[in-house]
Prior knowledge:
globular, 230 residues, alpha/beta, single chain
Amino acid sequence: MLKKELNNLLLDFKINKKYWLTNNLTGDDYDNHRSKPAPYIKKTIEIAKLLNLKNFVEIGSTRFAVTEKCIRFYDEKFHEYVSPPCCCDGHSNFFWVDAGFEVYTVDIDENCKNGVVWSYNNLGREVPKNLNIEIPKDGIEFLSEFKKTIDVLYLDGWDVGTPNYAEKHLEAYNIAKPKLSETHIIVIDDTDYLTESGGKDKLLSPHLIKEDYFLLFNGRQTAFLKHKDF
């Protein structure tokens, strides 16, 4: 029954995928031509709820505050490539928290804390109790020290083009591995590059495939599932 329900969720995930042959995207590329994270975030939420997952750890937090326009874009039938400019960032922690998950958002850049907190200020809301802000904090350091289990590991740190970004995402997974729940999801952002240097998953995706993870979806984001029945 679970397999059937999951397959139905994946079959319902009908989006056009766009991949890039350059790592040097222009502002117009980002705003009007690149796939947006929103549908991937929504699908992750649906799958996590189906599997009764609870704890989300996000390495690489939001850089921009959420506004009412962002929520309307997320809730309504959105254009696949055109969104409010800030929504190219995805605002994933906001929507995961809003869905009721326990969320730990981690970033080395102290300015990201403003983006997270201002989201709630903009909307006239209190910062929710199920949001744990670990900013500024190095992602590898956080994962090394984390004592709880991780149901969903979202990897979106170490920007494409920065030194050893692919290696860092693989390292983050390896550090987190002993803390991952028996059933868990790995999601990697910025995986839509068909370039020599690749996206953030260049080393991680092949590694997870070798470890018999089940591919859920790919495109702007790529997600893998570890479950005893898959």
